[in-house]
């Protein structure tokens, strides 16, 4: 009898340990994929620091390395001149102190959740950046615009100002479909209110100009998601029409401090679908970053100026 009791308690203990291990694994899996950056704080040019290679991959994906750097094998853990230049450009774009080193402010900025579309960066110093100034030449006052466009300035033709959209995901998520549809409907209306575009949802499986869905990891579009944390979503320039949410993120229409807002991200990604790149105005919808728990659903003047400039003709 004692032996049976002993085996019973051993079995219970094993179940508790297994449950604890699974819970711990889930916690680790849901942590920010860039938490390793905290170990890189203070790194400077000339050093070799484990983890720099992963950060280089991340910055390359966001456009901070020249396009002629074709192979990821060219990246290493060396804090070299090219990496220092990438960090300085990043710091300048996000209005940080331009130190060229991985200081705490830079690390914190990189860890903020964001869109996976590359930032507007000009690697040719002889040409202007994506930022522009406009205004009356006779006036000494100029409004500074921070909006940008995709390379080649793609946009929808005048014959396609009525766009249809539908939903199609490659993975199942716990988000209520009606909540997603309502959030996206409101997001489309934000852009319809300031442009000549109109948007109409069509049934799943019907031909549509825009397809919205949840994807995970490498989902076949050449731009794999990175798991929980950091890259939230991405969309493609006209007239591609794909908008992808990362299924590994925590999504909500009323986000807590560790969740991302479906509607805020939808408004941002629709801007890409219409042809806008990222803005360097932190108050703009088209600013690349949005912290967990934040709600940012309204266009600001930079967004409106950008979309109206793109479709001015």
From TrEMBL:
Gene Ontology molecular function: metalloendopeptidase activity; zinc ion binding
- Please report the stretch or stretches of sequence annotated as the Peptidase metallopeptidase domain: 152-313
Q: Annotated motif Cysteine switch: location in the chain?
A: 113-144
The residues that the entry says bind Zn(2+) 2 are 115, 268, 272, 278, 286
Q: What is this protein called?
A: Peptidase metallopeptidase domain-containing protein
**Cofactor(s) the protein needs:** Ca(2+); Zn(2+)
UniProt entry keywords in alphabetical sequence: Calcium, Glycoprotein, Hydrolase, Metal-binding, Metalloprotease, Protease, Signal, Zinc, Zymogen
Tell whether Nucleus is among the UniProt keywords: no
Q: Which family does it belong to?
A: Belongs to the peptidase M10A family. Matrix metalloproteinases (MMPs) subfamily.
């Amino acid at each position: 009898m004692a032996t049976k009791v002993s085996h019973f308690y051993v079995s219970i203990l094993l179940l508790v340990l297994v449950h604890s291990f699974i819970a711990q694994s889930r916690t680790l899996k849901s942590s920010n994929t860039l938490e390793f950056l905290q170990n890189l704080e203070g790194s400077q040019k000339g050093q070799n620091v484990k983890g720099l290679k992963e950060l280089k991959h991340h910055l390359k994906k966001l456009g901070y390395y020249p396009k002629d750097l074709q192979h990821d094998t060219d990246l290493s853990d060396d804090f070299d001149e090219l990496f220092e230049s990438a960090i300085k450009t990043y710091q300048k774009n996000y209005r940080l102190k331009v130190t060229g080193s991985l200081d705490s402010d830079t690390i914190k900025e990189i860890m903020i959740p964001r869109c996976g579309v590359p930032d507007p960066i000009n690697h040719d110093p002889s040409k202007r950046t994506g930022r522009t100034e406009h205004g009356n030449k006779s006036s000494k006052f100029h409004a500074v615009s921070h909006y940008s466009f995709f390379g080649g300035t793609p946009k929808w033709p005048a014959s396609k100002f009525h766009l249809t959209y539908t939903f199609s995901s490659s993975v199942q998520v716990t988000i209520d479909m009606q909540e997603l549809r309502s959030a996206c409907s409101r997001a489309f209306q934000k852009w319809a209110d300031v442009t000549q575009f109109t948007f109409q949802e069509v049934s799943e499986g019907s031909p549509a100009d825009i397809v919205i869905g949840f994807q995970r990891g490498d989902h076949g579009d050449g731009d794999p998601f990175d798991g929980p944390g950091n890259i939230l979503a991405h969309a493609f320039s006209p007239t591609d029409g794909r908008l992808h949410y990362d299924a590994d993120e925590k999504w909500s229409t009323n986000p807590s401090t560790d969740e991302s807002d479906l509607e805020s991200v939808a408004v941002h990604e629709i801007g890409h679908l219409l042809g806008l790149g990222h803005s360097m105005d932190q108050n703009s919808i088209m600013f690349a970053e949005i912290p967990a728990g934040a709600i940012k659903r309204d266009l600001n003047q930079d967004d409106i100026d950008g979309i109206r400039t793109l479709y001015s003709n």
